[in-house]
Amino acid sequence: MIERxxxxxxxxxxxxxxxxxxxxxxxxxxxxxxxxxxxLELAFDLGVIDGCTRDPxxxxxxxxxxxxxxPMGAMRATLERISGQLRPDAVVTDGGxxxxxxxxxxxxxxxxxxxxxxxxxPIAGTERxxxxxxxxxxxxxxxxxxxxxxxxxPTALARVRLMWQTVxxxxxxxxxxxxxxxxxxxxxxxxxxxxGLVDALARMQGxxxxxxxxxxxxxxxxxxxxxxxxxxxxxxxxxxxxLSHVLERxxxxxxxxxxxxxxxxxxxxxxxxxxxxxxxxxxIDRQIADPLxxxxxxxxxxxxxxxxxxxxxxxxxxxxxxxADDQMPC
Length: 330
Known about the structure:
By secondary structure, the chain is of the alpha/beta class. It has helices at about 10-25, 35-45, 55-60, 75-80, 100-110, 155-165, 175-200, 205-210, 215-220, 230-240, 240-265, 265-290, and strands spanning about 1-10, 25-35, 50-55, 65-70, 90-95, 115-120, 120-125, 145, 170-175. The strands form two sheets. Strands 3-2-1-4-5-6 form a six-stranded parallel β-sheet.
């Protein structure tokens, strides 16, 4: 049982976790934290949270479990703000899609609370964003990857694992660097390809005509280019080594493909296309047999956060300690 849950960043990801835990009857009180009063009021009106504050340090007071749902570039400032304010037994976890940078931030600022920090990554999302799009079933039959550290408290790890299992997720563990390598290839690279293709076409002369005749394949392939530019800038910077490596590898593949087309080597083209088709067909077959094979990622973030605090924009607050000082009922 979670006595008091603090959700820092009440959007699709944080809001859905709060709703799921409440539906499961395993949480007593939920405190939401964000910069936008309107977003917090909506979360309260929807029954997602019981109270709110715009100060992360206030949000975590007396909380026995803290969930950080802030963008990568805001994680360190948020950790700094809550460090020293946590209950001695409080467990902290997060939903960031790159673990190496978050772990580095946690090591730098959490001090004695580090053993009770359990890095995590729920691989779930929809094309919608914000707390209004949150729903309690988001994590059912989805994967959650935990990347515990050597010093992670086994009790804290078990508690976070149970939390995710309670909301219907399948939980696995990975080493931090391996997680970032896998996600660079399966999630981050596809986003880079979509962004790059749309940007290249948009900068071409006569791009209006190009987009006018774009069909369903273009729309499907580039859907994720509608993601938050701020969120993906932060992800790229946080996972620069692994992502740059896989981009270089893919660049070599594109160079080979271009050369094959230029030479008119139809046999090699058929080999490439057939190999790709077989690989994707096998993936679809596994997905049908096991829905957990499909790992949907959110294509957009909630409102772009203030990079100093990780909170939603709109309150005009000047920094981590500004604005509302006390928890309020929203």
